[in-house]
Amino acid sequence: MIAFLDGILEEKQPARVVVNVNGVGYEVFIPLSSYERLPGEGQRVRILTHDYMREDAHHLYGFATIEEKSLFELLMQTTGIGPKIALSILGGMSAREIRAAIASGDVKRLTSISGVGKKLAERMIVELKDKIGTAEAMEAEFGAEEPTPENMKARDAVLALIALGFTQENARRMVA
């Protein structure tokens, strides 16, 4: 497994880059969100990678942040989502927003991403909601807003209710 590449950015395109690591050029497929964070060509870059192997192909998928990489790997656990669809999903919305949409069961928000239909959005929610985790999901949902004393108190209240055994949805309704 190749965990990351550290080298010179030789080529930069919205869907792929080539990183020169000690004279070897690695082609890496990236989401648009990572592309926007990359330095210019000829600059030093560090890209976190996911090494994907099939019997007929060996591809590297790259990410600017660990949050993007971990969500990519989580999305790949969903039936019907391969690396290309996972990259497309990451390119359509921030990792934090995707986690929040999955945690809250927001099918409409997920279907706003190109390539994600109603059935796929529902499958993502069913298969990934429990894997995201309550605290992480709440952090994603409330973290999308600017932290204020009010939303920090609301987040803490929801987490406390969940710890007492309420479902996340009921806890959020009670606090709202």
Would you summarize the structure shown here?
The chain folds into three domains: 4-64, Nucleic acid-binding proteins (OB fold (Dihydrolipoamide Acetyltransferase, E2P), Beta Barrel), CATH 2.40.50.140; 67-133, DNA polymerase, domain 1, CATH 1.10.150.20; 145-176. The chain has nine helices and five strands. The protein has helices spanning 32-35, 66-75, 83-92, 95-104, 107-111, 118-132, 134-143, 149-163, 168-175, and strands at 4-12, 16-21, 24-29, 44-54, 57-63.
What are its keywords?
176 residues, alpha+beta, OB fold (Dihydrolipoamide Acetyltransferase, E2P), DNA polymerase, domain 1, 3 domains, five-stranded mixed barrel, 5 strands, 22% strand
* CATH fold label of the largest domain: DNA polymerase, domain 1
Write down the overall mean pLDDT: 87
CATH architecture designation of the largest domain: Orthogonal Bundle
Given the helix and strand composition, which structural class is it? alpha+beta
Low-confidence stretches: none
- Spatial arrangement of strands, main beta sheet: 1-2-3-5-4
Termini separation comes to 45 Å
Number of strands: 5
Shape: elongated
How many whole angstroms does the radius of gyration measure? Answer: 18 Å
Helices, by number, come to: 9
Strand content: 15-25%
Binned, the helix content reads 40-55%
Biggest sheet layout: 5 strands, mixed, barrel
* Superfamily (CATH H level) name of the largest domain: 5' to 3' exonuclease, C-terminal subdomain
Number of self-contained structural domains: 3
> What is the N-to-C order of secondary-structure elements (H for helix, E for strand)?
EEEHEEHHHHHHHH
CATH C-level label of the largest domain = Mainly Alpha
